[in-house]
Amino acid sequence: MRHRKAGLKLNRTSSHRNAMFRNMVTSLFKHERIRTTDTKAKGLRSWADHLITLAKRGDLHARRQALSIIREKNVVYKLFDEAAERFGSIFGGYTRIIKMGIRPGDAAPVSMIELVNTENSKKKKTKDKKVAGAGKKKATEKKAAEAGKKKTVEKEQAVDDKKEDKPEKKKATED
Asked: How far apart, in whole angstroms, are the C-alpha atoms of residue 172 and residue 158?
């Protein structure tokens, strides 16, 4: 029984598994998205969330802990510089797994794991909603104004037609 045994084994030894996830998490933070199998992506998600939490904390001890996991120093510096701005307002869910299909060679299910853009996407969505709502209001106001103008123009034309028709009738009766 596997009671209280968290994590995936992936048919590897612990040293091989740790090395693989260290390489994968380094590539994830370097390129911001990688393509791998579904089970590896699910295992990588916890490593990435842990490192982003360390980066949000931002102190020297957290930086040293991240340097013990991530293979490249410049990736750690990039992570610590961007994490507070990018993920400051949320507490988890820093990655997204998108299923891509199956791999042709061995029919393994393949996914793309990527970092989520939270701050930028929230700002864009709220601005888009405000602009879209204002645009809809303006569009309906314009349509109503145009419809009102058309009605007044039609009424004026009808009145003009009536005025023109009446003098012609009088002229016809005078002749």
From this structure: 21
What residue type is 48 in one-letter code? A
Cα–Cα distance list, 120 to 70, 84, 85, 128, 154 (Å) = 25, 13, 10, 12, 49
Residues 141 and 164 in one domain: yes
Per-residue model confidence as pLDDT tens digits over 114-136: 999 865 555 555 555 555 555 55
pLDDT one-digit tens code per residue, 38-47: 999 999 999 9
Instruction: Answer yes or no: is 3 within a domain.
Output: no
| Same-domain status, 152 and 79 | no
Q: How many domains does the chain have?
A: 2
Work out the widest C-alpha separation in the chain, in whole angstroms. Answer: 114
Whichever domain contains 72, its CATH number is: 3.90.1030.10
One-letter amino acid at 78 equals K
Q: Tell me the C-alpha to C-alpha distance, in Å, between residue 1 and each of 4, 107, 154.
A: 9, 29, 84
Range of the domain at 131: 118-175
Q: What's the pTM?
A: 0.66
Q: Band the pLDDT of 6: cuts 50, 70, 90.
A: confident
